[in-house]
């Protein structure tokens, strides 16, 4: 199991600095006994009531990109306080990450009320995704029916032999990405319209497109 250690204190006072170092040391020792391979250690000094934290953003990006399967914290308050904590736990769980708390001696245990709130949040978010996919599907169907849109024209290696690339409508991927959908949600949307694509395929094609854009516009990529 690969894990990321996340340690946080709220101020820059000397005693808090010591607390931060102690959190990391305790979590590293605990990781060895789990066992868990620590791939990254993230520390920061920031209020737990706020979500605009550089270290937290890095943590969420890492679990979304599957760089680690677990997050190790001293206790649940290190992730955040109040509503901020629930928001962070929800995002980590949504990304498939397991949260381990040293205080709990294993996976994080939430109070019954907090678990209920998280369950409701997940259901609301699931409904919003379904609505979004349905609206996009209707829009794509209208494009086919009224404007003659043919995503097959996006294939660049038809008739060239070798293994054919999957039929993936790049312009639709870009449009969905602009709407802040995840690669998993984009794949699910395209699958609903009949495209045989996975999250990995969508992610790969998007990265290929970004790489070509950087090569074609080197100045813009550094602005």
Query: What Rg, in angstroms, do the CA atoms define?
Result: 22 Å
The spatial strand order of the largest sheet comes to 2-1-3-4-5
Task: Identify low-pLDDT runs.
Answer: 154-165
Average pLDDT reading: 79
Tally of alpha and pi helices: 7
Protein name: DNA invertase Pin-like site-specific DNA recombinase
InterPro entries: Resolv_N, Resolvase-like_N_sf, SSR_resolvase
GO molecular function, one term: DNA strand exchange activity
Pfam family, one: Resolvase
Can you summarize this structure?
This is DNA invertase Pin-like site-specific DNA recombinase. The protein is an alpha/beta fold and 223 residues long.
Could you please describe the fold and organization of this structure?
The protein is α/β, with parallel strands linked by helices and 223 residues long. It folds into two domains: 2-110, Resolvase, N-terminal catalytic domain (Rossmann fold, 3-Layer(aba) Sandwich), CATH 3.40.50.1390; 120-222, no CATH class. The protein is 52% helix and 12% strand. The chain is built from seven helices and five strands; from the N terminus they run βαβαβαββαααα. β1 (2-9), α1 (14-33) and β2 (37-45) form a beta-alpha-beta unit. α3 packs across α4 and α4 (112-147) crosses α6 (183-192). The two termini are 38 Å apart. The model is unreliable at 154-165 (pLDDT under 50).
């Amino acid at each position: 199991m690969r894990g990321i250690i996340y340690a946080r204190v709220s101020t820059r006072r000397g005693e808090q600095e010591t607390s931060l170092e102690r959190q990391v040391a305790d979590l590293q020792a605990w990781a060895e006994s789990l066992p868990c391979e620590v791939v990254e250690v993230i520390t920061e000094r920031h209020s737990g009531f706020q979500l605009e934290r550089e270290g937290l953003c890095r943590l969420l990006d890492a679990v979304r990109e599957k760089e680690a399967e677990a997050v190790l914290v001293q206790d649940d308050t290190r992730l955040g306080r109040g509503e901020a904590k629930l928001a962070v736990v929800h995002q980590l769980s949504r990304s498939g990450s397991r949260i381990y708390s040293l205080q709990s001696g294993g996976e994080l245990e939430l109070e019954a009320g907090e678990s209920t709130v998280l369950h409701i949040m997940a259901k609301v978010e699931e409904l919003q995704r379904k609505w979004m996919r349905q609206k996009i599907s209707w829009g794509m169907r209208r494009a086919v029916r009224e404007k003659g849109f043919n995503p097959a024209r996006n294939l660049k290696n038809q008739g060239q032999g070798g293994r054919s690339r999957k039929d993936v409508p790049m312009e639709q991927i870009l449009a969905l990405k602009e709407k802040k959908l995840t690669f998993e949600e984009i794949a699910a949307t395209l699958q609903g319209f009949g495209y045989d694509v996975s999250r990995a395929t969508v992610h790969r094609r998007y990265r290929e497109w970004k790489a070509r854009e950087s090569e074609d516009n080197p100045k813009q990529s550094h602005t």
